[in-house]
Design a protein that fits this description.
- The structure holds two protein chains of two kinds.
- By secondary structure, chain A is an alpha/beta fold.
- Chain A is built from 15 helices and ten strands.
- Chain A has a nine-stranded mixed sheet, with helices on one face.
- In chain A, helix 3 packs parallel to helix 4.
- The termini of chain A are far apart.
- By secondary structure, chain B is an alpha+beta fold.
- In chain B, strand 2 and strand 3 form a beta hairpin.
- The two termini of chain B are about 20 Å apart.
- The chains are: A alpha/beta, B alpha+beta.
Chain lengths: ~375, ~100
């Protein structure tokens, strides 16, 4: 045993390769309610209402079923998960079930007491989103006053409570020039990790694409900034850098492959292969209220529809990258080409690729971008008989 | 917390590595393998990495870990030490181990 190559011994594989059959991660969208109105929200345009949300017991049951199914990590998200008063009850069950618990929060509705209680219950990690490190800009992006000051306060509590922190910074044309300051802010907050996450254009972000898309030059510059900061902050802060795929040549392996490693449960309990998959027509989404989670994962129509590679057409079908990027994103293929089984237009082999790139280039070059369409609940419809 | 108080940890033979509380080395009975659970990451350590990580208790030094492994695997200690340091440095940089 004299060959110990560290990297081979301890490989950081895409999570999906940890297991071909059972999922490893579950994104629990506990609610669509959120005090912020960010125009790039990944929630669907049609938001679930509070009276349709799963109950505490139903979410607790989802946690237990998830652990039994082999899920390792649970991401408690929203909307803003802390607006649910029963978050602690859900976390408690998730921890007891053996799940690694990650709270994805905007922070503004948190209190120090709640955070301390969550820590005592065994919450493993806090991911705090920021809109910008410029107060006025942060306010413009989120349509929420004094958000940044509250986030600083939350960061202070997280440090005092010695909880591990990731700063999540969605990047777009309104804040991309502030990237160095955003990185400094994360260091100052004591974050062990930062996600420099260029907006992915789905749902609200797609609606607001022309207002959000940075130029290619800005994206290239931001990549350089991240590379330099990574080197400077080695051993201090870990970076995750998500690039906008409009300027890519190969598509991202969206969700690590459809129905391969992760699943998403909406506030109402619908189980989705990804948070945007409701935009793909022809899919049937099962609900945790009607069917066991394991059965939905294995046999649900929506999960089977684009699982593996047999659904692929050319150029994906014969592509050597078919099992590397899985043809990219079904939702993006749907939105841009009208057929979810087409290759993702982010791929240079897609006949739609040039138009896709041209859209980003022309929108980002526009001197006066259109105003934001903020993320808001649509006006209430006439109450439907249940 | 400023950058100056948060310096990169350099792993040396006398370092005493440990897993921070939010990093979980867990056996997954369903899949019959070990995982390291970290924020937004799941690592799959191989058998030797598992043996090293199990010994990262904040008390045992890297040198002691290497001695231990050299005995168990009947391998030259210097080589094991070099490789163990390299692995732990990599993991420290990824925030998976800390060391005093």
């Amino acid at each position: 045993m004299n060959e110990i190559a560290p990297m081979e011994q301890f490989s950081e594989k895409p999570v999906v390769e940890a297991c071909a059959r059972a999922p490893v991660g579950l994104l629990a969208e506990l609610t669509h309610r959120c005090p912020l109105q960010c125009p790039y929200c990944s929630n669907p345009l049609e938001l679930d209402r509070v009276n349709s949300e799963l109950t505490t017991e139903q979410w607790q049951d989802v946690m237990r079923q998830a652990a039994e199914l082999g899920i390792l990590q649970i991401h408690l998200s929203g909307g803003e998960p802390t607006v649910r008063k029963d978050l602690e009850d859900i976390v408690e069950v998730a921890v007891k079930a053996g799940l690694y618990t990650n709270l994805i929060t905007a922070g503004v509705t948190l209190t120090r007491d709640r955070l301390a209680r969550l820590k005592d219950l065994g919450l493993d990690h806090v991911q705090l989103s920021i809109q910008d490190v410029d107060d006025a800009n942060a306010e413009k992006i989120s349509a929420y006053k004094n958000g940044l000051a509250k986030k600083r306060e939350v960061g202070q509590w997280v440090r005092e409570l010695e909880m591990p922190l990731t700063i999540n910074a969605p990047i777009h044309r309104l804040n991309i020039e502030n990237l160095p300051n955003i990185i400094d802010f994360a260091v100052e907050m004591g974050a062990g990790r930062i996600e420099v996450a260029n907006i992915q254009y789905y749902a609200w972000a797609l609606k607001n694409r022309a207002a959000l898309m940075p130029t290619r030059a800005q994206v290239l510059k931001s990549a350089e900034i991240v590379e330099a900061a990574k080197e400077r902050l080695k051993g201090i802060m870990v970076f995750d850098f998500v690039v906008p795929d409009y300027y890519a040549k190969t598509p991202k392996p969206c969700m690590g492959g459809w129905g391969r490693g992760v699943m998403n449960v909406t506030p109402q309990g619908r189980v989705l292969p990804c948070h945007a998959s409701e935009t793909v027509p022809g899919l049937v989404f099962d609900n945790v209220k009607d069917r066991p989670l394991a059965d939905i994962w294995l046999n649900g129509q929506a999960f089977q529809a684009y699982r593996g590679t047999s659904w692929m057409k050319e150029p994906c079908r014969s592509c050597p990258r078919a099992e590397i990027d899985f043809g990219g994103c079904r939702c993006q293929a749907m939105a841009f080409t009208g057929d979810a089984a087409n290759t993702d237009p982010a791929c240079k082999l897609s006949p739609h690729h040039d138009a896709f790139v041209a859209a980003a280039e022309s929108e980002s070059a526009e001197q006066t971008p259109p105003p934001f369409v903020y993320r808001r609940m649509s006006p209430a419809k006439a109450p439907a008989a249940e | 917390m400023s950058e100056t108080t948060r310096a990169r940890v350099i792993i040396a033979p006398a370092s005493k590595p440990a897993l921070p509380p939010h990093i979980k080395l867990r056996h997954d009975p369903g899949r019959g393998r070990w995982h390291v659970l970290a924020p937004e990451r799941v690592f799959e350590p191989d058998p030797i990495a598992i043996e090293i990580l199990k010994r990262c208790d904040g008390v045992t030094s890297v040198e002691q870990i290497a001695n231990d492994l050299a005995k168990d695997y009947n391998a030259p200690v210097q080589e094991i030490l070099t490789d163990t340091i390299a692995m732990l440095q990599e993991l420290s940089d990824k925030g998976v181990v800390k060391a005093a």
